[in-house]
Amino acid sequence: MTTEAGKEVLAAAAGYREQIVRFLREMIAIPAESRREKERCERVFVEYESLGFDEVRYDGLGTVIARIGSGPYTLLIDGHVDCVGVGDREAWAFDPFEGKVEKGEVWGRGAVDQLPGIACAAYGARVLMDHGPPDGLSLYLTASVMEEECDGHCMLHLVEKEGLRPDAVVLTEPTNLAVFRGHRGRLEATITTRGRSAHGAHAERGVNALYKMAPIIADIEKLNRCLAHDDFLGDGSVIVSHIESTTPSLNAVPDRARIFIDRRLTVGETRDTALAELAALPSLGDAEVELLRYDAVGWNGARAVQDKYFPTWVLGEDHPLVEGVAHAAETVLGERPPVSRWHFSTNGVATMGRLGIPTVGFAPGREELAHTTEEHVPIDDLVTAAAVYSLVPRELLEA
Fold it and tell me: Pairing mode, if any, of strands 339-340 and 179-180?
């Protein structure tokens, strides 16, 4: 049963229901793929300012940052402002940028992944301010950039380049109002084979790079069946996600082929172990294995560079951050939320995976709807999430 304190903050958040929905819909209406987030960031900046936060600014990478309070305990609530593209517009039954409201739900690109978290955290912070934020707190909200292309880089920049190292992080990736405490890591790699070109009419004079690649692909399919297992995070996995070749013409033997590999890493698997497995593929021969590197320029002209390795991370179920967020959610929901993990990757690969900062996730939205043409979120869950976010800082300070 929801406690009196839970009813109070839920009623306070419900008072902002229309504003939360409006803010979410207006963000959805602005296309903002990675490195093209400028207009949406400006929209978030205006909303943060209108809510009366103590400070609103951009960091050097273009992330929007708001601050409440200036105490020694620092909590960061992060949501990424960029979304994937919409793909084939004909596949959508509605305009993905309309922010459609139907049967108590908001629909559109980003309606799950993950604009609700930005809207709910902003108004949860407003509810916290209305009730008087606790002494000793610095609460930061981030609407971060480039997550879809290089998850975690925005957090690495914030901590390593700008010196903002929080004591704890709450991610607003979709959890369907559960508390998530980790996920598999990943890396992106390529394998390249080289051959010798020849006219298709004299194919015997060439060496076909695609034919050299074929047994390697079969080896990768076999490798996927014998990777490590963890009872909480599940199995490691590996797939060939894309293939390309170079050839002088469509009637010539290809002299180069390259496959792209998505490798998901469970507990105990690392960059080194994963790359070593690829290097040991039986059919690899003289093919080249390479870890991909992200090198891009953001919306504000800042350059982002890092290897495309994103570590596995898990926070213990009895950690005070897990318990604190779960108790805040229980206060509002009236029952303890499930504690689980994501299947996909988040900015936690940096905060917890690389930097060791305790990190959990809590947000509305179902993870399995992310990146689909069916992204939608219940409005009631938006209000609930805002109420929970308003309680989290106090729970953590009193832990």
Answer: parallel
Q: Are 28 and 99 in contact (CB under 8 A)?
A: yes
Q: Is 33 tagged catalytic?
A: no
CATH code of domain 186-297: 3.30.70.360
pLDDT, tens only, 125-166: 999 999 999 999 999 999 999 999 999 999 999 999 999 999
Q: How many alpha carbons fall within 13 Å on the CB side of residue 308?
A: 20
* pLDDT, tens digit, 9 for 90 and up, residues 194-252: 999 999 999 999 999 999 999 999 999 999 999 999 999 999 999 999 999 999 999 99
Catalytic residue among 147, 269, 367, 375: 147
For the chain, give every domain's residue range: 4-183+312-398, 186-297
Other Cβ atoms within 10 Å of 21 Cβ, number: 17
Kindly name the residue from 82, 113, 173, 395 that is annotated as catalytic.
Answer: 82
State in words which class domain 4-183+312-398 has: alpha beta
pTM, entire model: 0.96
> Can 374 be counted among the known catalytic residues?
no
